[in-house]
Design brief:
The protein is of the alpha/beta class. The protein is built from nine helices and 15 strands. It has two domains: 89 residues, 2-Layer Sandwich (Alpha-Beta Plaits); 192 residues, Rossmann fold (3-Layer(aba) Sandwich). The strands form three sheets. Strands 8, 9, 10, 11, 12, 13, 14 and 15 form an eight-stranded mixed β-sheet that branches. Strands 2-3-1-4 form a four-stranded antiparallel β-sheet, covered by helices on one side. Strands 5-6-7 form a three-stranded mixed β-sheet. The longest helix is centred in the last third of the chain and has 13 residues. The chain is elongated and about 70 Å long. The protein starts with a strand and ends with a strand. It comes from Isoalcanivorax pacificus W11-5. It catalyses: L-lysyl-[protein] + 3 S-adenosyl-L-methionine = N(6),N(6),N(6)-trimethyl-L-lysyl-[protein] + 3 S-adenosyl-L-homocysteine + 3 H(+).
Length: 292
């Protein structure tokens, strides 16, 4: 069945109120999108920032009364919408649409990321079956790819690994499939830990992976510390992440824009012997060996 979609320009201060009202008026789904190409690079942990100019889009059944919806918005919102646009949207298998764009991807010489519903192109490769589910992290983003390529080229046999900010668990699981002995994954989002556990089970490494919220993390040291988050938190958390890496261990950091790499290097260089910064598109990876 077709759908009626309503787009309303709003602001960071009012977008959530518009969203709540649209849902109360019967919208089947509401999405928020950037209205002015404003990047959001550095949200603090736990924050959900919005763009200064935000487009709120609501999906209604095709026979919804558009005039009645606008009338209700004008009556109950302060300020009322200054502008809006309706459009007809053809029906499709929404739950499949994103899956069609997620294809098997190679990283380095050994590793493939393969959607859980797809056949592995190379049955003899190290194939990581992944269902992103409730959390991001499929390998498609340049920051994740930078970390996966590092893992593919590393000797991980018998190593312990920390995946800090694990998302879907893709880095920890890749490390285990590539020979690591055990891994710990942590994230501030409980949904991410659920997705990580399920992806570990799907790949047969659930018994070698333990998940924690950051406040529950044990005071442990690891052979490899991976953190694919953002430059600001990486700088802020430098003492903690360095402490989790044993002397002589490896630390791998990503989620860093090229212009931010210098700040991250400065935060880690006193205690980590760093390699040249790796670059992929607009993003970088900082990695090295913790000094004794």
């Amino acid at each position: 069945m077709p759908w009626l979609q309503l787009h309303i320009p709003s602001t960071a201060d009012h977008a959530e109120a518009v969203e709540d009202m649209l849902l109360a008026l019967g919208a089947s789904a509401v999405t928020l999108a950037d209205g002015a190409d404003q990047p959001l690079f550095e949200p603090p942990p736990g924050a959900t920032p919005l763009w200064r100019e935000t487009i709120v889009s609501a999906l209604f059944e095709a026979d919804a009364d558009g005039e009645a919806i606008i009338k209700a918005l004008n009556e109950h919102l302060d300020p009322p919408p200054a502008d809006y646009r309706f459009e007809q949207v053809a029906d499709q298998a929404w739950e499949r649409a994103w899956m069609d764009d997620f294809k098997p991807m190679p990283f380095g010489e050994r590793l493939w990321i393969v959607p859980s519903w797809a056949e592995a192109p190379d049955a003899g490769a190290v194939n990581l079956k992944l269902d992103p589910g409730l959390a991001f992290g499929t390998g498609t983003h340049e920051t994740t790819a930078l970390c996966l390529n590092w893992l593919d080229g590393a000797d991980l046999a018998g190593k312990s690994v920390l995946d800090f900010g694990c998302g879907s668990g893709v880095l920890a699981i890749a490390a285990l499939l590539l020979g690591a002995e055990y891994a710990v994954a942590t994230d501030i989002d409980p949904q991410a830990l659920l997705a990580t556990r399920e992806n570990a089970r799907l790949n047969g490494v659930g018994d070698r992976l333990t998940c924690f919220l950051p406040e529950d993390m044990p005071a442990a040291h690891f052979d490899v510390v991976l953190a694919n988050i953002l430059a600001g938190p990486l700088v802020e958390l430098a003492p903690q992440l360095i402490n989790h890496c044993r002397p002589g261990g490896r630390i791998v950091l990503s989620g860093i824009l090229a212009e931010q790499a210098g700040n991250v290097v400065a935060a880690y260089q006193p205690q980590v012997e760093l390699n040249p910064v790796a670059v992929r598109g607009d993003w970088t990876r900082v990695d090295g060996t913790r000094k004794a």
